[in-house]
Amino acid sequence: MLLTIDVGNTHTVLGLFDGEEIVEHWRISTDPRRTADELAVLLQGLMGMHPLLGVELGEGIEGIAICSTVPSVLHELREVTRRYYGDIPAVLVEPGVKTGVPVLMDNPKEVGADRIVNAVAATELYGGPSIVVDFGTATTFDAISARGEYTGGVIAPGIEISVEALGVRGAQLRKIELAKPRGVIGKNTVEAMQSGILYGFAGQVDGVVRRMAAELVGPDGDVDDVTVIATGGLSPMVLGEAELIDEHEPWLTLIGLRLVYERNLGRL
Hints:
- By secondary structure, the chain is of the alpha/beta class.
- The chain is built from 7 helices and 10 strands.
- 37% of the residues lie in helices and 22% in strands.
- β9 (227-231), α6 and β10 (247-248) form a beta-alpha-beta unit.
- α1 (36-47) packs across α2 and α3 (113-126) packs across α7 (252-265).
- The radius of gyration is 20 Å and the shape is globular.
- The mean pLDDT is 90.
């Protein structure tokens, strides 16, 4: 069994793979104050409930793959793998790890590990050219060429950040539930805010993707050849409204982690 851990700014997603199949997953809050010992207890509590794993720490786990956008958490997870899973092969996605994805950026080291891992999975599952739209703390758009190269991307404020900003800066506004309103024209303040968030972000996705796709394929290419993949915890909210999303893969990052593990340490 392979344990994959994707540490985001807001949430950490864990997945358990049996071969190529994800058989269990968990989502927890990301807390940069957690120590390695606390993380180990948390991991054991989650995995101890799964029937395919033993009750002892690490029993049934044959490999670990980790990527993180939070350096302090990555440091603690590195200590977890050393202290509690020292006899289990582990891959932490960072500069020097083989991903198979050329990064065509001015400074490749500044690209988030999760975005490279997403590119790995997108190329494997759908080929190129493609665009990955990841709805997380930020909404990120990543462009992958027909040759599987990471060519760059776009970073925009995430859905939850925008909702919180409206509640904080608007004198008569408040934080609202992220839900679909009855119609585009809101009949009350809450519905008006929900409409602005939902349809505003759907329009943003279509607008950004349309421009990225045209630049990705060039003047002689066909934008219809570009596959647009949505992922991230908030992606289901926009799926039915953004017209240019072709595929939805909620476990794209975890699948990418599995592939990176295999490219570095081989199949389990």
